[in-house]
Amino acid sequence: MSQPTIENIVIVGTGCAGLTAAVYTGRANLNPLVLDGVQPGGQLTTTSEVENFPGFPEGIDGYQLMDNLRKQAEKFGTRFEQAVVTEVDFTSSPRRLVCAERTILAKTVIIATGASPRMTGIAGEKELYGGRGVTTCATCDGAFYRQMEVAVIGGGDSAAEEALFLTRFASKVYLVHRRDALRASKIMAERATSHPKIKPVWNSVPVEVTGVKEGAVSGLKVRDIKTGAETILPVKGVFVAIGHQPNTGPFAKALDVDENGYFRPAAGSQVKTRIPGVFVAGDCADHVYRQAVTAAGMGCQAAIEAERWLAEHGG
Ligand code: NAP
Which of 240, 258, 280 is the last residue of a domain? Predict the structure, then answer.
């Protein structure tokens, strides 16, 4: 019987972190295998224009950026495979990744599975998501709403932060929250609620994003949960900020995760885990910055650590 192949490096995820790790490890002649998950290209593929990735003064389409990064990884010999990891065994050496399709063995693993923004599920949200007015990232899309009215949904630190950031561009920011007090930290909550451009809409749940027929957001219908009254906020942009869900499920038992499910790296490192040769990168291990460029940076760090690990332990 032939011996099963043992990969040098398996990278799980094809967002900015995973593909940057692929460019680095590919260029180091390590012949990485990258597993494409359920959303190849990650969150950026659902954004239209990316204006803050260094090196693109005119901005670049999110899909195009990820396509470029993928080609760059391919140029250095990266292999891609469509496989969804369902379970892992990191107690064995080589490490085992059980996928729906097959089981993969690897000396080192870089997990870059990202995080998915939580959505409200209201009518019109899905249809108008990504370039049509519904978004989950003020840093990415805020600048498209100069002198326009926008709404932020949520009451946590993210919602407060998004609302404050949006005041730089928007003429008015409605902060729609289902209760009468923000969950955000006191300082953020005070900053947001006292800002002259931010109008809190308390005790209100979003009901519908209007504008599906026109193909662009024309308003956000909200319901006052105390009175039952429905109003349409006349906004052109809807920023959903009700938290993120890190895609760490199949790995959560084998590695350390925090109370929100994000990977908790080993002390003194952003990308090392308690399992030798297993690294994490990007939004699955970062709930603070969550930027394409920081994810790419972590992908680079993880790649260099994996290279070093292989050099020491035999690659
Ligand atoms: P979060 O703290 O979980 O807040 C989510 C908010 O969305 C809550 O106010 C929640 O309402 C609301 N919400 C949840 N589901 C909803 C739904 N279906 N419809 C309407 N509203 C809904 O999430 P987060 O703000 O993203 O923060 C996550 C973590 O990152 C937190 O620990 C936060 O402190 C941290 N963070 C820190 C910073 C910073 O320090 N600068 C910035 C961002 C995030 P309820 O309040 O009623 O539950």
Answer: 240
| Residue among 179, 202, 238, 287 whose CB has most ligand 1 atoms within 8 A, to mutate | 287
Structural tokens at position 60 = 């670049």
The answer, yes or no, to whether residue 43 has pLDDT greater than 90, is: no
Look-up: residue for tokens 């990007």?
A: 282
Domain count, the chain: 2
Q: How many CB atoms lie within 10 A of CB 29?
A: 11
Question: Is 284 considered catalytic here?
Answer: no
Tell me which residues have their CB closer than 6 angstroms to ligand 1. 120, 153-159, 161, 178-179, 183, 242-244, 287
Q: Which spans in the chain are helix H?
A: 16-27, 62-75, 138-141, 157-166, 186-194, 292-313
Residue 155 pLDDT more than 60? Answer: yes
Q: Which domain holds residue 218?
A: 119-240
Residues 128 and 28 in one domain: no
Last residue of a domain, one of 187, 212, 240: 240
CA pair distance 95, 104, nearest whole angstrom? 8
**Averaged pLDDT of the chain:** 94
| CA atoms of 191 and 73, how far apart (whole Å) | 43
From 99, 140, 157, 283, active-site residue: 140
Q: Whose CA is nearest to atom 7 of ligand 1?
A: 242
Q: Is 141 a catalytic residue?
A: yes
12 and 101 co-located in one domain: yes
Per cent of the chain over pLDDT 90 is 86
Q: Which residue, 20, 27, 22, is CA-closest to 44?
A: 20
pTM: 0.78
